[in-house]
């Protein structure tokens, strides 16, 4: 959109832009030559993912935290103070 003063304002344009139909058509074979994403994990990362279970949840840590919550020892004054400090830091 161009604004040339307060008396000349062009109207809205289509979402696909004014030159969308003028683009050259890409061949369908170009899509097959696109690079493919690939993920390579180190042996250490593979071992860590296998030890944490098939879904990535560390069941030993979850059990420990559930036990702390149930016994009432999870919430401490230090954790609350740390959380409040982080909140104030994020607010600026």
Write out key terms for the chains shown.
single chain, 92 residues, 45% helix, Anti-sigma-28_factor_FlgM_sf, FlgM_C, flagellum, cilium, Flagellar biosynthesis anti-sigma factor FlgM
Short description:
With 92 residues, the protein is mainly alpha-helical.
H/E series, N to C? HHHH
Number of helices: 4
Mean pLDDT: 77
Strand residue percentage: under 5%
- Any low-confidence stretches, pLDDT <50, length ≥5? none
Helix content: 40-55%
- Based on secondary structure, the structural category is mainly alpha
Biased composition (Polar residues): 1-15, 22-36
Biased composition (Low complexity): 37-55
Keywords: Cell projection, Cilium, Flagellum
Protein name: Flagellar biosynthesis anti-sigma factor FlgM
Structure explained in plain terms:
This protein has 92 residues and is an all-alpha fold. It has a domain at 43-92. Helix content is 45%, strand content 0%. The chain contains four helices and no strands. The chain has helices spanning 29-32, 43-51, 59-71, 77-91. The two termini are 37 Å apart. The mean pLDDT is 77.
């Amino acid at each position: 959109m161009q604004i040339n003063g307060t008396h000349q304002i062009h109207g809205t344009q289509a979402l696909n832009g004014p030159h969308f139909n003028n683009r050259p058509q890409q061949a369908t074979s170009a899509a097959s030559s696109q690079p493919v994403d690939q993920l390579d994990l180190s042996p250490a990362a593979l071992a860590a993912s296998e030890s944490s279970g098939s879904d990535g949840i560390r069941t030993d840590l979850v059990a420990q935290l559930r036990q702390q919550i149930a016994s009432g020892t999870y919430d401490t004054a230090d954790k609350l103070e740390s959380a409040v400090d982080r909140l104030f830091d994020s607010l600026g």
